[in-house]
Amino acid sequence: MTEIAPEATRILIVDDDAAVRDVITVLLREEGYVCTTVASAEAALDEARKTDYPLVISDVRMPARDGFWLLEQMREASPDTAVIMLTAYGDTEAAVECLRNGAADYLLKPPKVTELIRAIERALGRRRLELARGRYRRSLENRVKEKTAELSRTLHDLESTYSQTLWTLVAALDAREHETSDHSQRVVRYTLAIARRVGLAETALPDVGRGALLHDIGKIGVPDAILLKPGKLTPEEWTEMRKHPQIGFNILKSVDFLQVPAEMVLCHQERFDGGGYPRGLSGDAIPLSARIFAIADCFDAMTSDRPYRKRTSTENARKEILRCAGTQFDPRAADAFLSLGEDELLELSRPSDERPI
């Protein structure tokens, strides 16, 4: 008995006619193929589950389950297997249906040797090409996943660097006004808590948090004599002080990832009734993020000690925000703030090592 090379291609032959199976087997073994034969579609499916066959040659018309059924099952169970169908003479409709359902080729029975070999070579060639494409596609997908993960890590590191830079800058501004970093963190935490109660999307919160963090960056352009003055400001000094939202906006607007925070910084001193500055905007013309921040900032100012006054209680601060809802503050944002319990506000006010953004 001739030993078969281990790399020889395995072919499964399916036909209810034993004579056809034998003839095809003899022909293909002479060409170096390893052949297994079965007499039904069900037996072919069982055999294909046990052994990997690159190619199946099946009759279309068989008792019980026919070749169409087998072709459909093979498409689902072993999509990489090429299937050549054998059809009776003149059965053109069946041949077209086979190709439409995914057959690699079809031949008329009984098949001619040269046509059979060529059909097998074509089918196996297309199969090798499809497998190579599949490997390339999977390799490409893996490379894309790796590059995406690498890019995500880089962006995360870059965002962390940006965040560190912003917090360092704000800490310097707080120190200039004799504040502590707790002030900046509290205002950000209050703002984010209100924003969530209002219903802002989580994806919008980082920008809102950055806007709250940077709200007073424009004060870098305000002279110390005005910024740190312990008493009341003169009208001329107020004119200078009220320039800080525009200064802050001018500083941030050229930074791509700070476009939304820049607009929030510009509008954080506007009032809901139009009595604020620098543009006298009112109602929905003021960005919602700025309307939310105005309440957070006011609440923190009222409940913190200042050189010129002592802090007030949380209860009194809440009453004041309720009183000013519809005039100074957006009523919807005020309602969202007032829905926060005193225990929750107390927790938000406590110093934390974790930065909210």
Order of helices and strands: EHEHEHEHEHHHHHHHHHHH
The value of Rg in angstroms is 38 Å
Report the principal-axis shape: rod-shaped
| Total discrete domains | 2
Strands, total number: 5
CATH-assigned fold name of the largest domain: Hypothetical protein af1432
Would you identify the CATH H-level superfamily of the largest domain?
Answer: Hypothetical protein af1432
Look at the structure and give the mean pLDDT: 88
End-to-end gap = 76 Å
Strand content: 5-15%
| CATH architectural type of the largest domain | Orthogonal Bundle
Low-confidence stretches: 1-5
Kindly name the structural category: alpha/beta
Q: Could you describe the largest sheet, including whether it forms a barrel? A: 5 strands, parallel
Q: Percent helix among the residues? A: 55-70%
Number of helices: 15
In the CATH scheme, the class of the largest domain would be Mainly Alpha
Strand order of the largest sheet: 2-1-3-4-5
Show the helix and strand layout.
Elements: E1 10-14, H1 18-30, E2 34-38, H2 41-50, E3 55-59, H3 67-77, E4 82-87, H4 92-100, E5 105-108, H5 113-176, H6 181-198, H7 205-213, H8 224-227, H9 235-241, H10 244-252, H11 259-267, H12 288-302, H13 314-323, H14 331-338, H15 342-349
Parallel strand pairs: 1-2, 1-3, 3-4, 4-5
